[in-house]
User: What shape does this take?
Amino acid sequence: MQTVKMVITGPFAAGKTEFIQTISEIAVVATERKITDFTKAIKDNTTVAMDFGRITVDDDLVLYLFGTPGQKRFDFMWEILSEGMLGFIVLVDSTRSETFKEARQIIDIFRTFSNTPFVVAANKQDLEDAWPPEDLRIMLDLEPHIKVLPCVATDRESVKTVLLELLYSILETYEDDEEEQFEADTETN
Amino acid sequence: MALKGKLQDIRLTQFLNLVKLARKTGCLSLRSSQGNAILFFREGKLVHAALTKNANEEPGGDLYTLLVRSGKVQASQIDAVFPNGASADDKQLGMRLINAGLVSRNDILRIVRKNMLDVVYETLTWEEGAFEFQPNATPPPERLAVPITLDNIILEGDRHREEMVELKEDLPSLDITLRFAEGPRANLVNINLSPDEWRVISFINPRHSVADIARYSGLSEFETRRIVHKLLKNGLVEVAGKATVQEAAAGNSHSRSRAARTTATKRQQSRPAGRRPAMKPKRPDVEKSVVNRLIKFIRGL
Ligand SMILES: Nc1nc2c(ncn2[C@@H]2O[C@H](COP(=O)(O)OP(=O)(O)OP(=O)(O)O)[C@@H](O)[C@H]2O)c(=O)[nH]1
Ligand SMILES: [Mg+2]
Assistant: This one.
C-alpha cells in the first residue's frame, strides 16, 4: 500500500481543521484543547499538535492530510510534518487582515523545508467582509505563478477544488521534468 | 576496592539505592550481551552515562553524537561552525553552538539528561552480564557532567523495567516498519494523542523502521516503543514488514573495500542528481500515475 501526504497549514483559526474535516473519510483525529489565553476571543478550541485526515483511493493508495497546529508555540512540529509531503496548502482567513503577514511568513518557512508545490486558499469566502483572492495575492506579495484560490472550508466542493488545483500543480512538476529530460536527451543524441 | 558482581544476582535499582544512600562517587561499568554501559556518580548523583548496544564496542556518549542523534542540529550545521566539533571537548562544543545560536543551553541540558535516563532505563532491562563499580572514578574531562538525583530512577525503576520487558515481548524488534491501518475504524474518534504521539505518527511510513522513527523524532527508544505499542493496540497503525533489505545491505558494506564502496556511492549519487542539481527534493518518490489516480478519485468524490 502506498501513502501520500499533504500538509494543510496557515495561521491560527484559518480553518485548517474545518478543511480536513470536510473532506476526510474519518473523523479528524485532533488534539483539541480549550484555549485559556487571549485567543479565546476568536474561538474555543485550537489544534495543539495537528489534525490528521484520510482519503482512501483504493486498496493500495491512501492520501493523508496533516493539518499543522496554528499557534506559533507549536511551530517545532512544522518541519517534522513537512517531511515527505507531496505538496501543501496554505489557508488564510480572508476576513482577518491582521493574519496576512503571518501567512506570508508561514509560506516562507515552508518553502525552506521543501520545494514541493503549494497553493494558497483564501478561506471563508462565504463571509461578507472576506478579501477577494486577487487582493490577497497582492497583500501577501505572491508571485503570479502561485495559485490563490477562493475557498469555503465548510463546503465540500470548494475543498475538492482546492485539493485538485494543488494536484494539478504537482502534476506540472512531472511535465517540467519530462521537458528537461527531453532537452537533456536531445542534447546528448 | 572495586565492587563486582553479576547482574543476574542483584537488582540494579538496589545498587543505585546504595549509591544514593552512601553518597558514593565512582564509575559503574556494565557488560552484557545486550551492550556495554558506563554510569558515573558523584556524591550519590548520576553525572554522566553512556551506552552502546554493540557488545564489542566501548560506550561513547559524546555531545556531538547526542546532538546529531537528537535531530536538534545536523552534523553539517555543527561542522560548519566548528570543523573539529566531532572530536572536541563537550563544553567547548556546547559553547560554540550556543554562541552560534544553533542550540540553547536548555536544549543541551535536556538532551544530555534524556540520554542519561535512557541509558539507565535501558540497563535496568539487562538481565545478565557483569558489573563493576570503581570508587572515586570521575567522568572523562572532555564529557559534560550533569547531576541528576537518583530518587526518581529508584522509585520508577522497577515499574519502568517491568514495562520495558513487557514492551520488548510485544515488540521485540525495532526493525519493523509500520503503516496506517487500512479501512476506517470507529474507535479512531476517541483517540486522544499527545504531541509526542503525533511526532511518532508523522514519521510513520512503510520505509521507516521503528528505530528510524526513534531517531528522527528525538524520542528515546523506550518512549517510541511505548507509543508505537499504543498505536498498534488501538488500531491506528499496523505492522507493514521488516526494514528493507537495502538497509541491511548497506549495513554489511563494511566488509567491502573502501574503494569499492566509494565508487558504489558515487554511482548512486550520480544517477538521480545528474539531471537536477537542486538541493531540496522537489517531491517525494511518487509516480506520476499516482497523482493521476488521486486527481481522478477526488474529482469523483
Ligand atoms: N464561515 C466560515 N467559517 C469557517 C470557514 N472555515 C472555518 N471556519 C470557522 O472558523 C473557525 C476556525 O476554524 P478551524 O478549522 O478551527 O481553524 P484552524 O485553522 O484549525 O485553527 P487552529 O488549529 O486553532 O489554528 C471555526 O469556528 C470554523 O468553523 C469558512 O470557510 N467559512
Ligand atoms: Mg485546527
In short: The domain at 171-253 of chain B is CATH 1.10.10.10 (Arc Repressor Mutant, subunit A). Chain B has two domains: 3-157, 171-253.
